[in-house]
Amino acid sequence: MLYAQVVLPLAQPMYTFSLEESMAVEVGDAVVVQFGSFRYYTGIVWSISEAKPDLKRIKPILRKLYSTPLVSPELQQLWEWVADYYMCSVGEVMRIAMPSLAKPKADSLAEFDERTIEAPAESYIALKEELRSEEALLAYHESHRRAPRRIETMDRIAALAIERKAEDGFVPRRLVDAETVHIADLRRRGLVVEERRLVDAVSSANDFLLPILSEAQSRALDAIHAAHADDKVALLHGVTGSGKTEIYIHLIAETLAQGRDVLMLVPEIVITSQLIERLERIFEGRTTTYHSRLTQQRRGQTYLRLASSSGGELVVGVRSSIFLPLKNLGLVVVDEEHDTGYKQTDPSPRYNARDAAVVLARFMDASVVLGSATPSLESYANALSGKYGYAPLMERWGDGMLPEVVISDSLRALKRGERKTHFNLDLLQNIERSLAGGEQVMLFQNRRGYSPYMQCTTCGYSPRCPHCNVTLTQHRANRMECHYCGYTEERSAVCPNCQTQDMRSMGFGTEKVEEEVQRMFPDAVVDRLDGDTSTSESAFRRIVQRFEEGKTNILVGTQIITKGFDFGGVTTVGILNADNLVMQPNFRSSERAFQLMMQVAGRAGRRNDRGRVIIQTTQPQHPVIRSVAVGDYMAMASRELAERKEFGYPPYSRIVRFMLRHKDYSLLHRASHFFGDILRRKFGTRLMGPVSSAREMIRGEHCSELMLKIENGASFKRARQLIAEARDAMVEHEEYKRVTLIIDVDAL
Ligand code: ADP
Ligand code: ZN
Known about the structure:
By secondary structure, this protein is of the alpha/beta class. The chain has five domains: 2-111, GIY-YIG endonuclease; 121-198; 205-393, P-loop containing nucleotide triphosphate hydrolases (Rossmann fold, 3-Layer(aba) Sandwich); 404-450 and 508-642, P-loop containing nucleotide triphosphate hydrolases (Rossmann fold, 3-Layer(aba) Sandwich), CATH 3.40.50; 653-745, Alpha-Beta Plaits (2-Layer Sandwich), CATH 3.30.70.600. 34% of the residues lie in helices and 23% in strands. Strands 11-12-10-13-14-9-15 form a seven-stranded parallel sheet, sandwiched between helices. Helix 1 packs antiparallel against helix 11. It is globular. The relative contact order is 0.08.
């Protein structure tokens, strides 16, 4: 009898089950076990040992589920790393790492059978064994000259097998260009044998038709190669429209030609259909997409298929694709690596797929390219320090010119009477010009709802926290609060900066913009793309398609319009209120604001015409806005890095955010201070908070927050141990164990 440690998709430790040797179960296999009184779960065998553990009752493993292991040793390493780093159980990692159909659970064993899916299989054919050498086939030709069609089909099968380097001679039936009757005839004659096999994505040879790179692109590709030769992650810093995708395509082709797999991460698959189409055109039949909008069936089958693939796979997917069972990973591409969508906020594990992908690549000995027009400061700092290789690409491809950026001063416009509702004259004139020329307009406003902050309408001043350097958020009852450290001050009607009585709460959303622009341009077709209008993929696609086809003249939207689109007809892009981008109560607001505005600006003038970007702001001198105007990433980065250093924020530290929740405010308050006191004893001034507010509730619960900054150079592993001890103290506490405690490592 053997004993196996099994991971179950629960927030529980691993459990030991007994294992009959005859079941031929290996580490990484999916197995069925009974857990709890009436539940049957799929678990993953984590380790096997002969030593009988000292336990009273050991339940048996009931059966093995698939013929191949679903979790390779490298993926085991990844799951363990994620669990350790992001402070959760391996079972919680399993919950999100495998699609639910690949790990069914049921109330009875019989029900279990119905829920198990098969990896998709298809027909493979080969010439009979005696004919699999060239000489044998030629000899057959000689003796059967009167059956040319038969010979032609046999030649095709042989050629395809050579092309695909199929050592056993088997090729997918669907790829053999021959009619069913001919194949059936060959089979009847015993010349061809057939087998059902799992579907392999590889369907063509490795002679991909690659785009020819410009000189600048070739230099960037060389820099990436140099980084990889040095075993370094490469940061591809390429402005919008520079053709980063073309560079990825070259790297992907090299990797596939070696028979290795490629994982390409993208922020949100729904907005990258253009990208998928481009990849499909080049890597025909190889591209597998993986995202949450696929059916459960499809995701389950993809997982199983990849687990038994023979390599050479190209997977394009969202963050959870890092957990797909690619056995021979050679390259990871993280496109738009700065995108915050790579970080999972809920539920646990709160992992960052970009960071986890870099770790995975290390386990798999694969190369990594992080690509962005506006790299995260973390990645950029790594490039500056030489930890990452740096591949800059600062010009648009072809004759593409970067758009002209105009800063439009909203306060001045207001004073001069050159502002109608939320539009400055500058912007209105540009919209008019574009519409008159039959061109398109995109208007960006980063919120749908009403989410105010305070600002002086005379001088543009916004109150900030003296300790944390973030804007104070306005709360009811005239209180201004720092969402980081809890500092509060009275809301004053008088501006502390210029002493006038013009402090106002600010904010308006996309819906309002849509309404106003429609009123001013009654003949234009206006559409809106935001969280409210794109609740389904089809609604989203409809809006995008209408715009692509030129049926829509003006598209109003949130963040969603900033990513990945390659529309040719846009000549005016308006950012309606840059202030609420640079005024977010978050130490990353400058970086975010810059990234967002650059992305939005990148939508303008992508083909022939040089586009115009109008940024409306009350702070035309704001350093971030000035950097956007001149497209100077480096200026923004060095200023921002200096500030981060001064206040000890990432990349000079790591941040762990704690959220506590309970419906009883008094209990929450006491528990937060209990938890905070333990942490403060261990971490001193590195801890900020707790901050809680009796008024604000999320889903009927009060919340409280703490934040920990662990400076670089201090052991983060040790810090996590100390945090785990504090968590244990909460879990073991008679009263406080009822409070929900969320730990978010590297919180954004
Ligand atoms: P990025 O992702 O860097 O913003 P894209 O990869 O979308 O830029 O490229 C912008 C446009 O330029 C696309 O339409 C792309 O097809 C085209 N392009 C870029 N490089 C090349 C090339 N080497 N050959 C042909 N077309 C290219
Ligand atoms: Zn503060």
